[in-house]
Amino acid sequence: MNEPLDENKVAEAKSAKEVKTKSVRKQRFNFIVLGVLVLVIAASVAGVMWFRQANTPEQRAETETAQGPLKGYATGSLATLITHETPQPLTDITFFDRDGKPHTLAEFKGRVVVLNLWATWCAPCRVEMPTLAALQKSYDPAKVTVLTLSIDEAKSLAEAKNFLDVHEPLVFYNDPEVQPLSKWNVIGMPTTIILDKTGMEVARLGGEAKWDTPEAHALIDAVAAK
């Protein structure tokens, strides 16, 4: 005669089985997650290694800073100069002189333009400004114009004008809408963009530089000769 089932024992056995099943499922899940993480890490490491091999500092320098006929001028104080394989268009904008009169880049076509973007709150901008003034003194402004474009707010215009007044023969211009950041892809101050006689961008340099150096004159002379 069969012994009657003990309901408590049955319940305990069932519960133990469920716990074991859940434990096995959890272990399998953890194993799968771990496997996926290993694959992701391996792929990431492989990607980084490929990027480093395919983009050595020399190769990155070649693609980011030294292209086209002007690449040889990226030396000395202009070592970080970005030059282009071919001249690039620069979106025209409206900006204002010290008296509030509007101007555009189109007005400066026919001459080489050293377009310097600066602000009074930018310490490197202040440091390099005397060298830009010296550069302008070396050239006829009708042939080479150093166009210093301030992006200061209205509350800082008086200070900006006073600062530029002691750096003759530079002329004060201001863009209160700070258009260069979006229209010219400028990400920091100072930034200097070199335009040829047709108004096309041939080079640019982000950060402080010395513009009264032989290499700077050589660059401007090369652009002016075309």
Topology:
Blueprint (H helix, E strand, L loop, with lengths): L6 H48 L2 H8 L17 E7 L5 E4 L4 E3 L7 E7 L4 H15 L6 E7 L6 H9 L6 E3 L5 H4 L7 E5 L5 E6 L7 H11 L2
Parallel strand pairs: 4-5, 5-6
Antiparallel strand pairs: 1-8, 2-3, 2-6, 4-7, 7-8
Structure explained in plain terms:
The chain has six helices and eight strands; from the N terminus they run ααββββαβαβαββα. It is an alpha+beta fold and 226 residues long. Strands 1-8-7-4-5-6-2-3 form an eight-stranded mixed sheet.
Pick out its properties:
2 domains, globular, Thioredoxin-like_sf, AhpC/TSA, Glutaredoxin, alpha+beta, 8-stranded mixed beta sheet, Redoxin family protein, 226 residues, disordered N terminus
Please name the fourth-level CATH homologous superfamily of the largest domain: Glutaredoxin
Cα-atom radius of gyration: 32 Å
> What's the CATH first level of the largest domain?
Alpha Beta
Across the major sheet, the strand order is: 1-8-7-4-5-6-2-3
Task: Spell out the helices and strands N to C.
Answer: HHEEEEHEHEHEEH
What is the typical, i.e. mean, pLDDT? 82
Instruction: Please report the number of helical segments.
Output: 6
Low-confidence stretches: 1-6, 36-63
The helix fraction, in percent, is 40-55%
In the CATH hierarchy, the third-tier topology of the largest domain is known as Glutaredoxin
Tell me the total number of β-strands.
8
Q: In percent terms, what proportion of residues is strand?
A: 15-25%
InterPro entries: AhpC/TSA (IPR000866), Thioredoxin-like_sf (IPR036249), Thioredoxin_CS (IPR017937), Thioredoxin_domain (IPR013766), Thioredoxin_ResA/DsbE_sf (IPR050553)
Transmembrane segments: 29-51
Keywords: Membrane, Redox-active center, Transmembrane, Transmembrane helix
Protein name: Redoxin family protein
